[in-house]
Amino acid sequence: MESCVSSVESILKYRFGNKKVLEEALTHSSCTESASYQRLEFVGDAVVGLAFANFVYLAYPSVDQGILSLLRAANISTEKLARVAVRHGLYRYVRHNALALDAKVREFALAVESEDELAAIYGGAVKAPKVLADIVESIIAAVYVDCDFDLKYVWKIIRGLLEPIVTLETLPLQPVTMLYELCQKQGKQVDMKHWRKVDTNICSIYVDGKLIATGTSDQKDIAKLNAAKEALEKINKSVINNVGIVYEVNEKNEIESAKQKLHELCCKKKWPKATYRIEKEVGLAHEKKFMCSVEIETAEVKLFMSGDEKSRVKEAENSAASMMIHSLVESNYL
């Protein structure tokens, strides 16, 4: 255990006066012959939260409490702290008698190597084992106790450990702010509902009373970010134009059920019904392809558009209708 204590001191760049407190911080509850880190983890959870609250309060004097809360949550979530344990190798120095723990930690550590920066906030492909965050919190508490509960000094020690810190400039607030801005422009009401299930925070987002996304996390604010991100992803696959026609676009930028959507559009704009015509047939009978055109008459002008070649007439008509809708949007007819 002495070598483990020395290694962690090197990582922290801090020498403990009472090394027993660090030994306790590095002892899992599966080691029943010694005191575990659970009491220290309890203290560390509060210490790291208050330390970050102080930091963001002083760093951003003009930012409201909602944004400050998001900044703190992004930096002290289980996902973020677990990655601190992996990045600095702190998990290697924990003594335990739980074989299953090694496999979970190893799987997570491998996943962290190939993930992007947002995974620390939203979570990656592998859920972070809570034990990793607990280790970081217990070590922080050990420093706090050893330096006679000096929070300012603790922050000097742990700030480097917790880098990269999510700042106002790097916090991905867009999912929340963009969702509200987008729906506000469209005259739609956004409601977020929060609740807890065991240790998990759940946030559901409703737009005009309809459930469109749900996010989860151990932190309430991160659950909200996750839900907003999912909501935006769904909305970004849809287009809502000025007359209220909602349509989804596939990976080829083709509008799903375009013929029906164009019909709805003509009805709402009180334009005559769109007319379709087969412009071209190519290929042998068993592999024939069709190209269709569509014509609509607005209050000002007649518009004509041809689609791509398709193996079925219905698909060719949808292609023409899709191009017509895109053209109407780009030409500001909608």
Automatic annotation (TrEMBL):
GO terms for biological process: siRNA processing. Keywords: Endonuclease, Hydrolase, Magnesium, Metal-binding, Nuclease, RNA-binding. The keyword DNA damage does not apply. One of its GO terms (cellular component) is cytoplasm. Residues 174-237, 257-330 form the DRBM domain. Residues 5-148 form the RNase III domain. Its cofactor is Mg(2+); Mn(2+). One of its GO terms (molecular function) is ribonuclease III activity. It holds the Pfam family Ribonuclease_3. The keyword GTP-binding does not apply. InterPro entries: dsRBD_dom, RNase_III_dom, RNase_III_sf. This is Uncharacterized protein. The lineage of its organism: Eukaryota, Viridiplantae, Streptophyta, Embryophyta, Tracheophyta.
